[in-house]
């Protein structure tokens, strides 16, 4: 692996190192403890839109299965209508120069603000923002876990959300989520929700998660 990182990039401004195709396939599983949620064991959910990005199709599919099964749930679960309308458009894993070649996963999703997502003032409800962040910001950790053969599915410990601007009915939200750290039990990621048409930041957040012991659930 070090030989692939030894060649200096042609420009000092480059922050991403190229990923070799074989690096985006899982290696042997680390550790012997069984994960409390295994993305490969979840039911398959059809994603109507094409998902771009450099990750293998199976990673995109397992990530979406995890999002739907664990984050969204059944039809009578909280926020189901909102969660089901989220469409992932891009899933990438890159090796970051400024992180000494460590892998970083990014997912991009979109959703349109509809009437049932509004508050009394006719703007996107803060609770709906938190719901979107909790679910979407978890996905790069799932993706990175699949690539590195560790479990990136966890329960939320904390979420720090900043609200920057309102989003009225009909706004197309672009949700960009990026992994920060993925450890054995503790993991973190960050997220920005943008107005796709204007580029305004609607909200930003940091998310901290942990993987609990299955025997305690």
Summarize the structure.
The protein has helices at residues 2-5, 57-72, 80-85, 126-136, 139-148; strands at residues 16-17, 87-96, 102-112, 155-163, 172-182, 186-195, 201-210. It is an alpha+beta fold and 217 residues long.
Write a structural description.
- Residues 1-38 are annotated as: Disordered.
- InterPro entries: ACOT13, HotDog_dom_sf, Thioestr_dom.
- Residues 122-200 form the Thioesterase domain.
- This is Thioesterase domain-containing protein.
- The protein is an alpha+beta fold.
- The chain has one domain: Thiol Ester Dehydrase, Chain A (Roll).
- Helices cover 22% and strands 29% of the residues.
- It has 5 helices and 7 strands.
- The chain has helices spanning 2-5, 57-72, 80-85, 126-136, 139-148; strands spanning 16-17, 87-96, 102-112, 155-163, 172-182, 186-195, 201-210.
- The chain has a 7-stranded antiparallel beta sheet with strand order 1-2-3-5-6-7-4.
- The longest helix is centred in the first third of the chain and has 16 residues, at 57-72.
- The chain is globular and about 45 Å long.
- Mean pLDDT is 85; it is low at 1-14 and 27-33.
